[in-house]
UniProtKB/TrEMBL annotation:
Signal peptide: 1-26
InterPro entries, alphabetized: GerMN
Region span, Disordered: 340-360
Keyword Signal listed: yes
UniProt organism field: Aeribacillus pallidus
Pfam families per record: Germane
Membrane-spanning parts: none
Keywords (A to Z) from UniProt: Signal
Residue span(s) of domain GerMN: 98-188, 249-340
Presence of the UniProt keyword Acetylation in the record: no
Name of the protein described by the UniProt record: Sporulation protein
Length: 360
C-alpha cells in the first residue's frame, strides 16, 4: 500500500512507463534526452576505419531522425497541484529542437492541442521566442516583452520549466534568459536570481519543509508519484538534505521512504519499514541496493514482487545523480526478484529515455 493511500494503476498507464533492464537501448546516463540515439560501436584496430564507421552510423541516424514526421520531446508543464512535471509529447520534427521546445511552453501556443488533462503551459500567452543560441553548453533564450506578464507565484516554476526542458538535450547544461536582446540577471517580477545562468543543480519543486538550517544542507532531487484520475506520473522534488549525510544514494532512499510533504498532493509507495541492510555498492556506473523484505510492500513476500512504482521512483531518482546509469535490486542479498508484470529483475534497470509518456 502507498504511504498515504493505494494508487490504482491501469495496465495502459503502466505500459507507458516501462523500465527496461541494463542491456536495453532505453537507458541513459541522466535525464538528458539524447538527440541522436546511442550507437553500438565495434572497436577496430585501425583508427581511420573506426572514424569512418562512426561517421557512417551518425549519418544513418540523422537520416532516420529527419525522416520522422514527429519526435518525442520532454516538456516541463504545471500540474493541478502547481508542480513542475516532465511530460513526453509528440512534437513536429524540426532542426531547431531547442527553440521549438521552449515555444511549446507558451500558454495558448501550439502545445494547447496536446496538453495532458490537468496540466497547463508555463509561459505567458503571446510570448515570442525570438531565438535560442547555444554555445559552450549554455543556451541563451531571448524572449519578447510578453514574457514578463506572469503571476508572481509562477516565477520560480517558469525558471525551472525552461531550465529542465532545455537541459534534456545533451549539448545544454546551463540556461540564460534575455528579453529583447538584454540579459536578465534576475527574474522580472519577483526578482528571483538568475546570475550567470541556471542548471538542474538549482533544483525543481523545491521542498524545504524538513530543513531546520538550510545553510547546513544541500539539494537532492527525488521522484514521487502524482495522479490525475486513475493515471499516475512521476514528479521530481528537490529536498534539502543534511550535510552530515555523506552517501547521496542512502539519502535518496531515505527521502523516498520518508515520502513527500503531506501538503504537496504527492504520494509514495515505499513502506516506512523499508531499509537498506548494507551500504550501496558502486561499480562501472551501476549502484546495487540490498533491501529488507519491506520493499515488497503489500505483495506476498514469497512471490518476491517489487512494485513498478517503487522501481520507477528508485531508478529515476538515482540516475539523476552523476555517474549512476543503472540500478540493481536485491532483497537479503538475493536478486531473484520480479516486477508487477512478472519480468525478472536479475539484471540492473536503466533510466527510460522518456518519462511520463501517458496521454491523459
Amino acid at each position: 500500500m502507498p504511504k498515504n493511500r493505494w494508487v490504482n494503476v491501469t495496465a495502459a498507464v503502466l505500459a507507458t512507463f516501462v523500465l527496461l533492464s541494463g542491456c536495453s537501448s532505453f537507458g541513459s546516463k541522466s535525464s538528458k534526452q539524447e538527440i541522436d540515439p546511442p550507437q553500438d560501436i565495434t572497436y577496430l584496430e585501425d583508427g581511420d576505419q573506426l572514424d569512418q564507421q562512426l561517421d557512417s552510423e551518425k549519418s544513418t541516424s540523422d537520416k532516420e531522425e529527419s525522416s520522422k514526421e514527429t519526435v518525442k520531446r520532454v516538456l516541463y508543464l504545471i500540474d493541478k497541484n502547481g508542480m513542475v512535471v516532465p511530460q513526453t509529447l509528440e512534437l513536429p520534427n524540426t532542426k531547431e529542437v531547442a527553440k521549438q521546445a521552449v515555444e511549446y511552453l507558451v500558454a495558448g501556443g501550439p502545445v494547447s492541442n496536446i496538453l495532458p488533462n490537468g496540466f497547463r503551459a508555463v509561459l505567458p500567452e503571446d510570448t515570442v521566442v525570438k531565438g535560442v543560441d547555444i554555445k559552450d553548453g549554455t543556451a541563451i533564450v531571448d524572449f519578447s516583452n510578453e514574457f514578463t506578464n506572469y503571476k508572481p507565484e509562477d516565477e520560480e516554476k517558469i525558471l525551472q520549466a525552461i531550465t529542465w526542458t532545455l537541459t534534456q538535450f545533451k549539448n545544454i547544461n546551463k540556461v540564460k534568459l534575455w528579453v529583447n536582446g538584454h540579459e536578465l540577471k534576475e527574474m522580472p517580477v519577483n526578482g528571483t536570481p538568475i546570475g550567470e545562468g541556471t542548471t538542474r543543480k538549482d533544483g525543481i519543486n523545491i521542498d524545504t519543509s524538513d530543513a531546520v538550517d538550510i545553510t547546513d544542507t544541500h539539494p537532492l532531487t527525488v521522484y514521487y508519484i502524482g495522479e490525475e484520475g486513475d493515471n499516475v506520473y512521476y514528479v521530481p522534488v528537490t529536498k534539502r538534505i543534511s550535510n552530515e549525510e555523506k552517501d547521496e544514494v542512502v539519502a535518496a532512499v531515505n527521502a523516498l521512504v520518508e515520502g513527500p510533504d503531506r501538503s504537496s498532493g504527492l504520494l509514495s509507495e515505499f513502506q516506512s519499514e523499508v531499509k537498506l541492510i548494507e551500504k550501496p555498492k558502486y561499480e562501472d556506473g551501476q549502484v546495487t541496493l540490498n533491501f529488507n523484505e519491506a520493499i515488497y510492500g503489500s505483495y506476498d513476500e514469497e512471490k518476491k514482487i517489487v512494485s513498478n512504482h517503487v522501481i520507477n521512483s528508485l531508478v529515476l531518482t538515482l540516475t539523476e545523480q552523476e555517474g549512476i546509469e543503472k540500478v540493481a535490486l536485491k532483497v537479503n542479498g538475493k536478486q531473484d526478484l520480479v516486477n508487477e508484470d512478472g519480468k525478472s529483475l536479475s539484471e540492473p534497470v536503466s533510466r527510460p529515455e522518456n518519462v511520463n509518456t501517458g496521454s491523459f
